[in-house]
Specification:
The structure is a homodimer of 436-residue chains.
Chain A lengths: L7 E6 L3 H12 L1 H8 L3 E7 L15 E2 L2 H6 L5 E4 L7 H10 L3 E4 L2 H18 L3 E2 L11 H7 L5 E7 L2 H13 L3 H10 L8 H4 L2 H15 L9 E2 L7 H9 L2 E13 L5 E13 L11 E8 L3 E8 L3 H20 L22 E11 L4 H11 L4 E9 L2 E8 L2 E2 H13 L3 E10 L5
Parallel strand pairs in A: 1-2, 1-4, 2-3, 4-5, 5-6, 8-10, 10-17
Antiparallel strand pairs in A: 7-9, 7-11, 9-10, 11-12, 13-15, 13-16, 13-17, 14-15
Keywords (chains A, B): Amino-acid biosynthesis, Metal-binding, Methionine biosynthesis, NAD, NADP, Oxidoreductase, Sodium, Threonine biosynthesis
Family (chains A, B): Belongs to the homoserine dehydrogenase family.
InterPro entries (chains A, B): ACT-like_dom_sf, ACT_dom, Asp/hSer_DH_NAD-bd, HDH, HDH_cat, HDH_CS, NAD(P)-bd_dom_sf
Chain lengths: 436, 436
């Protein structure tokens, strides 16, 4: 590479929180970026919804409301997609890749379902498709999984990858307030969107789990393959019970290599709120912070921690990808793409070994505990903890099981629900992060 | 890439803890490695000191005691250097790079002083020089700094990157035992070498700081540029004082961008045992675990945590590099090399703002505290905490300062040492990880 390398043209699609910061960095850090890339990065245009919105930081001639035309320009080498959603991003990215441009995107919803199609287009055109910012914001997770652990065998990826739900659960644990109240507070503080469904029902975390599982296990995992439960039914009583068990509750995205009795490997990808011991590294990840724990055969347990959302941190991840994609164009190289050679099948949730925490209201009379315990025993499920607190003629009974197939556990809960002595199943959560 | 890509030949130099595990992975994981590289990885030979030592896991014909001949073979594409020390590794690596072979090494001592020379040879030959395993074992640190943060501005890297000293300090904090006793115990458990100087005097941590600072700040930093103090003078009294201040003591490798009053940027790279608040993320990193905290302008604070040493975890990092180097050969690409375009000068330790913890024995009589405080005040150094515990006619006085130039702080300590009322300066340590 000589210092006379020709400029790399960059197009930004979308000027939300992240896009605004990406444009700022592209404009402010030209010297550093050029030195790191080996050629100048030149911003060719920014596609926005409405070019008439005042944007004093961008020269008006760079703004366009025609993203397709911007993507098609001959002097654009790298397209940064920050619009979000499936269409039109899917079309813009595919077009860009097919015409030999590299693409950087933070679009987890798109990637969760269409990485295969997009990676194939990138491979065909021999260009890069980078998406570090799609999972856990500024925290390097995709690159460590794809590159640093390329010579290892990943067993498990478990993370807190949604800031909204982590803010809500952290605040509920701290204040004792209920879910609705805390969600409203999160909305007031800007940590929850007007329609919080994608966050609180775990869709966002499931999309990220699909991306992480695909990469970690070199297989195709889409959002539909991810078992998903949200946090909207978590109560202050659950958090209080968790605390009594020296645990807290976190919404976890878990991607695990599970091995059948006959040695066949499958992938379990699942998102749900779970109890984790306070001593677990993820237990202290509070507020809008994210963290991902990776367990690999040789590396052992690694943890990556940082800011998982927000325009500025996410822009850092986007710009890391942009510099690497640009550098690859200068040096005619390419980063690794998604690979699905292992093609591991998905394990249905029922077959995955988990541990249950079941809280129920029961009649406070002799024989009830024996009857409840019998339902677990009949399905060969060991009980680790039982706590019963009497209250007049009713009692609150909490049972924590040992590990057993999730299907046997949920069957047991269904059987308990039908028992006369059980007035109400107040709560069913899983317990993660323990060795037994 | 077609599935018929020709094999990539690999040579391993050195069969210590790490080399043995690298050879095992190369031999056991051929299918996965081939799928990830896009071509088979073939082990051409392993250079050992004595080919007659029994090594049942390696076919005898692969062993050689002539590393130079192995490096020179035409069918070797990647050389994995795991001998350690400056020579002969320096010569072998240079020769390999000059003849167009990619190199993966875990040799921090060599890299701390010769990365420039070796990176130049790699750039000239358009091949890779990877060294993720040189810092913090299995924990991805080099790749995140070089690639993930390529579009950001790193302000600070602070880490616990030496397992031996972290084991000793963690054990001293836990048991109250003294340094000599704990070092002996570390030796018995295999966590300290027969000659522990490189670890306990901070040379190993300083080499890693030089590597981290070079990459983080795109500048040339060698081991000699790193200010260094070891842990051998840490006493149980220091750890007890630290605990009273809600702190613990860790050996830190700190690489910081410091800005002069006139706005000029310099690099401070330093290794010393320091008090850090118990609430700091590095405070809970115990035993042989390592962790690195990176603070960047846009990404904010990131933390990387995992196993920093040991043959198996370190081999994971080596193999990640091997797969990426091999993949680059299949796809004619190249990873980024060290870059020193920023060429920031080194800040002398005296100019770097730090905070001091000073423990001293003083005469227990009126006026002594005023006299001691006067020495700090005369150099414009604010005092944050004073603790005095009387004991007959003598008292133990602990002073924690606010941030001030290290030179002014050490001058103050020298002045205190000369005071009649100060019987003895028991301990001088720095305090890190606070915002003020």
């Amino acid at each position: 590479m000589s210092s006379a390398s020709k400029p790399i043209g960059v197009a930004v699609l979308g000027m939300g929180n992240v896009g605004t910061e990406v444009v700022r960095i592209l404009t402010e850090s030209t010297g550093d970026l050029q030195a790191r890339v080996g050629a100048p990065l030149e911003l060719r245009g920014v596609a926005v919804r409405d070019i008439n919105t005042a944007r004093p930081s961008i020269p008006a001639e760079l703004l366009t409301d025609d993203p397709a035309a911007l993507v098609a320009r001959d002097d654009v080498d790298i397209v940064i997609e920050l619009i979000g959603g499936i269409e039109p991003p899917r079309t813009h990215i595919r077009t860009a890749l097919q015409s030999g441009k590299s693409v950087v995107t933070a679009n987890k919803a798109l990637l969760a379902d269409y990485t295969g199609e997009l990676a194939a287009a990138a491979a065909e055109a021999r260009v890069d498709l980078y998406f570090e910012a799609a999972v856990a914001g500024a925290i390097p997770v995709i690159r460590p999984l794809m590159q640093s652990l390329a010579g290892d065998t990943v067993q498990r990826v478990a993370g807190i990858v949604n800031g909204t739900t982590n803010f809500i659960l952290s605040a509920m644990a701290e204040t004792g307030a209920d879910y609705a109240e805390t969600l409203a507070e999160a909305g007031r503080l800007g940590y929850a969107e007007a329609d919080p469904t994608a966050d609180v029902e775990g869709y966002d975390a499931a999309a990220k789990a699909a991306i992480l599982a695909s990469i970690a296990f070199h297989s195709r995992v889409t959002a539909a393959d991810v078992y998903r439960e949200g946090i909207s039914s978590i109560t202050p009583a659950d958090l209080a019970s968790a605390a009594q068990l020296d645990c807290t509750i976190k919404l976890l995205s878990i991607c695990e290599r599970v091995v059948d009795a006959d040695g066949a490997q499958r992938i379990s990808a699942r998102v749900y709120p779970a109890l984790i011991p306070l001593s677990h590294p993820l237990a202290t990840v509070n507020g809008v912070f994210n963290a991902v724990v990776v367990e690999a055969e040789n590396a052992g347990r690694l943890m990556f921690y940082g800011q998982g959302a927000g325009g500025v941190p996410t822009a850092s991840a986007v710009m890391g990808d942009v510099v690497m994609a640009a550098r690859n164009r200068v040096y005619s190289g390419r980063g690794p793409l998604e690979s699905t050679y292992a093609s591991l099948p998905i394990a249905p949730i029922g077959s995955v070994p988990t541990r249950y925490y079941v809280a129920m209201e029961v009649a406070d009379r002799p024989g009830v505990l024996a009857q409840v315990a019998g339902e677990f025993a009949s399905r060969d499920i060991g009980i680790a903890v039982v706590r019963q607190e009497g209250a007049q003629d009713r009692a609150r009974l909490v049972v924590v099981t040992h590990r057993a197939p999730d299907g046997a556990l949920s069957e047991t809960v269904a059987a308990l629900e039908k028992m006369d002595a059980v007035t109400k199943i107040s709560s069913v959560l899983r317990l993660e992060g323990t060795d037994d």
